[in-house]
Amino acid sequence: MTTAQAIKFESQDQGEETARADIYGLLATLLYAPPSQTLLDTIAAAPVQGDSGLELTWAELVAVCKSAQQEAVREEYEQLFIGVGKPEVMLYGSYYLSGFLMEKPLAELRTDLMQLGLQRSDDVVESEDHLATLCEVMRYLIASDDVVNANLITQKKFFSDHMQAWVVECCNAIEASPNARFYKPVARLARQFFEVEMQAFDMSLD
Questions:
Q1: What are phi and psi of 92, to 5 degrees?
Q2: 178 Cβ partners below 8 Å, 6+ apart?
């Protein structure tokens, strides 16, 4: 089962934690690189139910995927996040937290990742503060069998230390871009999900 097929917000047998991990995993995939046509078609065929903010933004993404073509989405991704020179929209935490890339927030993140026993793979070109990488770390902290690190306390601390201060601003920047078509609903889904996460973390472990 693919990540997109697994996202069923109302499903009781799936479990909330699995759904959270699935959304983080899907966002990581969509933000790290342009999606394949197979993934676009899979999202387009995914179930849509419910009227919560998160469910409505998911329905919007499903609707956009019904007509999305891989090549057009690839061109949009490159225009938004790669570009010539400075990308139109930055996906790196250091940029939002310090105004520059490869700054102190990245060094602090690398220290925390090392303490979690995580390190960047040799075939990954993006720095660790890329939003896709951070989403993948969160997916790991939710879904992993690591009994030491995969727990709510670690999730809350990692999200608070490395994501909470800037991810909504990043999503807003994507949505505000006149060149965002496919990635506009991706950004809306991400922002809605991150806001739900913030509210849940605020209510937990206090």
A1: -110, 130
A2: none
| Cβ neighbours, 10 Å, residue 164 | 16
Contacts of residue 97, defined as CB under 8 A and 6 or more positions apart, other chains included, come to 103, 105, 165, 166
Report the C-alpha gap between 111 and 115 in whole angstroms: 6
Instruction: Write the DSSP symbol of residue 180.
Output: -
Residues 174 and 91: their CA atoms lie apart, in Å, by: 9
- Length reported for the chain: 206
Do 93 and 87 meet the contact criterion of CB atoms below 8 Å apart?
no
Segment 13-57, tens digit of pLDDT: 448 889 999 999 999 999 999 999 999 999 999 999 888 999 999
Give me the numbers of helices (H) and strands (E) for the chain, helices first please: 11, 0
Residue 59 token pair: 């329905």
48, 59 contact by CB (below 8 A): yes
The answer to whether residues 31 and 132 touch, using CB atoms and an 8 Å cutoff, is yes
Max CA pair span of the chain: 47
What are 114-151's pLDDT values in tens digits?
Answer: 999 887 776 777 899 999 999 999 999 999 988 788 88
